Fold this protein.
Amino acid sequence: MAFRTSELFDRHMPSVTLKVNAIRWVAVLLGSVFLLVLILLRQPDQSVDGDVNTELTNQLNEEASRTRWSIPRAQTWYSSQPWLVGANYLPSTSVNVLEMWQEDTFDVKTIQQELERAHQRLGMNVLRVFLHFLIWAENADKFYQRFETFLGIAKKNNIRIVPVLFDECWNAESKLGKQPEPIPGVHNSQWVRCPGQAMLLNRTSWPLLAQYTIETIHRYRSDERIVFWDLYNEPECSKQVKIVLPLLRYIYGSARSVKDVQQPMTIGIAKWPLTSPLATFELAVSDIISFHSYGSLTNIVSNVTDLRLIQAGRPILCTEWLARPFGSTIFTHLDYFQYEKIGAIQWGLVAGRSQTYYPWKSPRDAPVPRLWFHDLFYPNGTAFNPFEEKFFFDIVKRQS
C-alpha cells in the first residue's frame, strides 16, 4: 500500500514534489550557512588556544611582545634591586585569599606579627601575595584601604610586595562571606580561583576583570612598595588552557594599557616544555622571567638553563619552590639561588588554616607529617626547623 501511494503521488502531483525538493535545498543551504558561521566564530579560539594555526599564534605573541620592556631596561631594573628573597604569603588565620582580604576577617595583628618574623628572623625582603577580584568588586575603596594597611605593615618591615591579580588553582568557584572550614588533613583544601570558572566562561564579564586590572595597576604603578606585578598564577592549573588563554591575553592587554608603570610584569612558567602555546605566550610577554619548580636542585638547574637559552639576558626569578619531600629544601636550593642571583620566593611562611604543610593529595584526616611540605613557622612563631631558620638568615645576611 505504501508503494502504491507513493506511485500515485509521483504520477499525479509533480508540482508538490518540486516544492518539497526546493524546501529541502533551502534547508540544506541554511544549514550550511549556519555551520559556516559556527566555524568562523570558533576559528579564532581554535587558532590561538589549540595552536591549530601556529603562524597566527606566533604573530599574536610577537605583537604582544612589542609592549614589554627591552632587555636593557629589565637588566637595569634588576641590577638596582637587592637579591629578592621571600615567600608566598597567606596569614595563618586565613583559609584562603577571600578570608585574608574580607573586612570581617582581615587580621592586622597576625599580619604584623608574621611579617615581622619574616624580616627580622629570616631577612626576607619580598612577599608574593594573591589579591581577588570579588573583594574589589564588592567595594573597591574598602579593598584598597585594607591593601594600603597591608602595604604599610610590609614597608615597616622592609618588605615589598608582588601582587598576583588572577589565579587558576584549586577550587573552581569562590563566594564572598564566611569561608568553609579547612578539611582536616587536606592540603590547601579551601583555596579558590580568581575570577572563577563562571566568569572565565562568561566573556560578557571580562570588561569588569579588565577594569579591576587597570584600576589596581594604575593606582600603584609607581609605588615603591610594589616590586613587580604577577598577572596570572598558573593558567594551566585547571587543565583548560584552551579556555584560559584568551582571557590571559585579554588581561595582559588590559595591564599593558596602563601608562607609565614603573614595575615590571610577569606571568610565571609552571609547566614544561617551553614550546607549548601557553609557555611561548608567557615568555613572549614577561618583562622579567619567573617560573615555578618544586623539584630537586637538578631540576632547578635544568629549568634555569632552558630559560637562559630561550630568554637570554632577562632576569629570572623562581616565584614558587620548597617541597621538602621532593628534595626542594632550604639547604639544597637557597645557596644556589643566591649564587646565581635568581630571585627566590618559596611557598609558605607560617603553617595555618591553608594546611600547606601537608603534601599535595593528602587524604582527609591524614596525620600531620613529620616532614612538612611547605612553610617555615608554627603559628606561635616557633620554627619548624631551627637549623633552616639560621641557614636562611645567614645566606641573606651574607648577600647584604
In short: Confidence is low (pLDDT under 50) at residues 1-52. Residues 209 and 296 are 37 Å apart (CA to CA). The first strand starts at residue 85 and ends at 88.
